[in-house]
Amino acid sequence: MSELITIRRELLENLVDKEECWFDHHGGCQAHGHLDLEPGELCPQAEVKALLANCGEVRPPGTQTVPLHGSGTTGGPPQG
Ligand SMILES: [Zn+2]
Questions:
Q1: Mean per-residue pLDDT for 54-79?
Q2: How far is the CA of 50 from the centre of ligand 1 (A)?
Q3: How far apart are the CA of 2 and the centre of ligand 1, in A?
C-alpha cells in the first residue's frame, strides 16, 4: 500500500466492475472472484469504486483544500 501511482480516471472507470460486491461466509468477494481477501481487506473493486466516489465531483477553480491537521501548536496541554 506504499506505492502511489497516477492514472487517468477514465482508465479506472473502464476497469471497475458495475456489479456490486457480495461476500461469502469467509469474507471473500464472490462477485469478482477475490476469495482470498485478508481479514479487513476490501475487494479491489470496492476500493476503486470508493476512489471514484471520492473523486466524483470536480472542484471549482479557486477551491482550496484544508489540511486536516495543522502543523502549528494547538494550545492544548502537553500529553504525557
Ligand atoms: Zn468485489
A1: 64
A2: 12
A3: 22
Decide if pLDDT at 21 tops 70: yes
HEC per residue, the chain? CCCCCCCCHHHHHHHCCCCCCCECCCCCECCCCECCCCCCCCCHHHHHHHHHHHCCCCCCCCCCCCCCCCCCCCCCCCCC
Distance from the CA of 61 to the center of ligand 1, in angstroms?
A: 35
Tell me what pLDDT residue 29 has: 94
Question: Please, are residues 1 and 42 in contact by the beta-carbon 8 Å criterion?
Answer: no
Q: How far apart are the first and last CA of the chain?
A: 32
Q: Hey, what's the cell of 13?
A: 472507470
Half-sphere exposure (Cβ direction) of 79: Cα atoms closer than 13 Å: 2
